[in-house]
Design brief:
It is a single chain. By secondary structure, this protein is an alpha/beta fold. It has a single domain, classed as Alpha-Beta Barrel (TIM Barrel). The chain is about 30% helix and about 15% strand. It has 4 helices and 5 strands, in the order βββαβαβαα. It has a 3-stranded parallel beta sheet, with no helix packed on it. Strands 1-2 form a two-stranded antiparallel ribbon. Strand 1 and strand 2 form a beta hairpin. Helix 1 packs across helix 2. The radius of gyration is 15 Å and the shape is globular.
Length: about 120
């Protein structure tokens, strides 16, 4: 697998990024996925040299982050996880006044085992 530097970082990521919207078992668009199949697909990506994964809190209500964290437990130090922080109005409703600079939600970091409590 070819690697490239990600933007202005020093992170070397695979030229293929494995998107995880479809791995959630409880998603209105992808409902019915088997968790074991999703983990197997992620592991197959790792075996093929993919080290770059994309997720978001909307994917299965955060379930894709949980599945991704579970699948990457033993290789977490060798992969890069890209995610999104939705606009405040998507997280807290249209009347939200949460600043764009608010901290990244710790619960999400724990869910994907990006960091540990």
């Amino acid at each position: 697998m070819r690697l490239r530097i990600l933007g202005r970082t020093n992170l070397r990521v695979s030229v293929i990024c494995h998107g995880t919207w479809s791995i959630a078992t409880r998603d209105p668009f992808w409902d019915g996925q088997d968790r074991r199949d999703s983990i197997a697909a992620i592991r197959a990506s790792i075996d093929a040299g993919v080290n770059f994964f994309d997720t978001a809190p909307q994917y299965g209500g955060g379930e894709s982050e949980e599945i991704l964290g579970e699948a990457l437990q033993d290789v977490r130090d060798r992969v890069v996880i890209a995610t999104k922080l939705p606009p405040a109005e998507m997280e807290a409703g249209p009347a939200s006044t949460a600043p764009a600079s608010r901290p990244f939600p710790a619960a999400r970091l724990r869910r994907a085992e990006i960091c540990f409590p």
